[in-house]
Amino acid sequence: MEKDVAKRLVMAKDVRECLLYLERGEVDGGFVYRTEALQAKQAQVLFAVPPALYPKIVYRMGLTGTGSRNPQAVSFYNYLKGVEAQAILLKKGFKIK
Prior knowledge:
Layout: H1 2-8, H2 15-23, H3 34-37, H4 71-81, H5 83-91
């Protein structure tokens, strides 16, 4: 049975490519991040992998030493911490700490 499934797998280079295959109907199913799945226009979520089966996915934000001296980088960093950006991130399915 495993060999039958393995022969049918299509490997995508990343989550975006996997979602593209799904959106075009080129595959029957795929695994993507929830935040990506929420952007899908033609695909729908049929199954969520239980969180106990994978490590928590965390996107961290910070400035490098060089970035902290760049006014545009600092401005963007501050924007991402603001109410407007936080609302956008929540709308796109991210959880904010």
